[in-house]
Amino acid sequence: CLLYGPPSSGLRAVTGFFPNDRFTPRHFFPPSSLLHTRQIARDVGGWVGPDEARVAVDYEFIVRCHEAGAAFAMTGQLSVFKFNAAWRRNAYRRRDVGEQSACLAALREDSQAHLRRELTTALRAASEDRLLRVETPMSTSDKASAGAVLNQTFKGSHHWGDASHCRPVDRPVRFPCVNENAGYEWHSLEQDGNGSAFRWSGPACHSAWVLPVRVDRPLKLTFQVIHEIQAGLLAASRLSVNGRTVEAHHRPAEAGGFLWTAHIAPDQLPDGERAPLLLTLSVLVDCALRCRHRGWAWGALFVAAGLMVATGSLSLPKVWHPHNHSNIKGALAYVQMHREPGDHIAASTWTNKAFGLYAPGYGLDGVALWTYRDTPNAQHNAYALVRRICSGQAPGRTWIVISHHFGQRQDFLALLHTLSPMLPAWEDADAGAYLFDFSGSAYCKRYTASAPVGP
């Protein structure tokens, strides 16, 4: 039997081979790859429930047949392609048979060619340490009931959360990493030198987390991300809540790594889906391939250390935001209150989309806007912006609005300050508005005679 890990994981498993052609209870294989007589099934009492079974109900049936004296013989042929529901979250609820349909179509078209391709893929998985060894520990005394509910819940045959047990969030709540059943969405729990727990996401590209909370007010979700294995992969990540994508942004954390933040409000979810919350983190495979990190192209590539859920700020009554939003509305409100006729605004390409979304609400959509590229070279960013403003013979003062890459603003603003002193400004933890008047500066006068260019 060839078993397929979750899509995008690259995992495979092969069962049905027994060392020295001798079966022992250690060597589990799916019953779908077993052909047996009716009589042996009657002799062992058929399948029993999880309260009676050891480890799992399918394993119990195989072991009872063995204990009754049945001999298992290998056919030497691959007879089953199994897309294991236990490795696919909510498989029974989604009822997606796309993988099975594609496999069946390939077999009908050319069964031998498909078999060669799949065996080659399994060999590749083995060479990349992605071929799973499916065995049952001989020392285990666990009853099937111990893991049955978790397994059924993960597969979706049971509801994955009881809304009556979900709490409203009226204060910050932290959810640490736990070593729960994850269907290869997460690696096992680890600890750093200080004893703090963390988990690598993957090997699947989609890693989910069930939170027993109720969305009855705007909430802010903050993930602590310790590390991304390839620069840029976090920026290509996506966050969804109960299957609906929400806008998220990240910024460097003071202690290292990143804080990845998103907002969710009741009106973003149907009435019956506001508790509990299934958060899904996804890394785009195409990005991993573009980053030339093919060995990891199947997996989500960062470390999640914990999650904080808090009530949304009252200054953010609307919580759907463009991907580069970072509390820009406070900055826009300050500009609205203090701007004068002839003032214009400058924003980076990162901030530009957020500005375009919210500016009309603050009467700023008619204000001249200068957009600059936020490159790693802060000196180039500052001088090029001022040159464009002065070359364009734009009279009046300039409001610099920053709402993304906010932690990197200091060098940029300091360079602008060397060209012209900063006037009144406003900022909070995530965004700011800074007023300059470059028109009288010596640097600006060097370019005021240049041909006009548009903002």
Helix and strand arrangement:
Elements: E1 2-4, E2 12-14, H1 38-43, H2 57-67, E3 81-83, H3 91-94, H4 98-127, E4 131-132, H5 144-155, E5 167-168, E6 173-176, E7 190-191, E8 197-200, E9 206-211, E10 213-214, E11 219-228, E12 237-241, E13 244-246, E14 248-252, E15 258-264, E16 277-283, H6 285-290, E17 302-311, H7 328-338, E18 344-348, H8 349-358, E19 369-372, H9 378-391, E20 398-402, H10 409-419, E21 425-427, E22 432-436, H11 442-445
Parallel strand pairs: 1-3, 2-4, 5-10, 18-19, 18-20
Antiparallel strand pairs: 1-2, 6-17, 7-8, 8-17, 9-16, 11-15, 11-17, 12-13, 12-16, 14-15, 20-22, 21-22
Helix pairs in contact: 9-10
Tally of contiguous helical segments: 11
Total strands: the figure is 22
> Looking at the chains present, what oligomeric state does this protein adopt?
single chain
* Uncertain spans: 285-302, 312-326, 450-455
| C-alpha termini separation | 64 Å
Based on CA inertia axes, which overall geometry fits? elongated
Structural class: alpha+beta
**For the CA atoms, what is the radius of gyration?**
29 Å
What is the makeup of the main sheet? 7 strands, antiparallel
The amount of beta strand, in percent, is 15-25%
> Which whole number gives the mean pLDDT?
82
Account of the 3D structure:
- Helix content is 26%, strand content 22%.
- It is built from 11 helices and 22 strands.
- The strands form 5 sheets. Strands 6, 7, 8, 11, 14, 15 and 17 form a 7-stranded antiparallel β-sheet that branches.
- The longest helix has 30 residues, at 98-127.
